Amino acid sequence: MISVLLATYNWPQALKLCLESLNQQTDQNFEIIIADDGSKEDTKALIEAMRPSFAVPITHLWQEDIGFRKTRILNQAIAVAKGNYLVFLDGDCIVQSDFIAKHRELAQPGFLLTGSRVILNEALTKSLLFWPHWDTKRFFNSLLSYRLSGGINKYLPIKIKLGDGSWRHYKKFVWRRIKGCNMACWKADALAIQGFDESMTGWGHEDADFIFRLQQNGIIRKSGAWATEVFHLFHHIHDQSHAAENARHVREKILAKTR
């Protein structure tokens, strides 16, 4: 079974669309674990209201809001996951109806997957947040017009789905295209490196550190582009005051392994 580890913080309107898109999957053999980094009561109320309508189980993990501690809550989610394969997703992303199916198709022992995203602009994001429910058909019927108007930054990777192959494999660690909002690995591999580095607090680069340590442990990185794209809702930049320090932390690990 696949466990979707869904990180969220204080944006229930976006989380609602994300969950509704997960509830429309062609492959229903998965669970959802919401890794909540201290959201207010309205997020909990939303989850409780939506849970009865879901065909798949939803677990809500919550920790006190004392700063950005995404690594800590994700490690809790890894620990309780019932699936042997973990798909990491953010609550500000909407998924296609074959999202789980494509991740399952590309899952392979000894490999991790870094997926891709389609970025939505502010105007389209605001429009979607006013929809009463996520409507896949309505969205896809307007896909080309969204691209032509700049509402989305990609079109062909959504319309054309490519299969597996060695062309997806990375030969070495590269920082490029690592997005914590869409990546996957085997639970056993995540546990083998003790999950995310909880010393990394504040926004930025905990996903790159996680991928680097997986690769250092012998796991091969595979690209999920042209198969697993998610729709990333527009939001203003998070507080990046920790980003430079987190990046330095990762670079030190890389240098230590290459000396």
TrEMBL record:
Domain Galactosyltransferase C-terminal: from-to ranges: 172-220
Q: One short Pfam family name for this protein?
A: Glycos_transf_2
Q: What keyword terms does UniProt attach to this protein?
A: Transferase
Query: What is this protein identified as?
Result: Glycosyl transferase
Tell me where in this chain the Glycosyltransferase 2-like domain is found: 3-109
Give the molecular function GO annotations.
transferase activity
Looking up CDD domains in the UniProt record yields: GT2_Chondriotin_Pol_N
Query: Superkingdom of this entry's organism?
Result: Bacteria
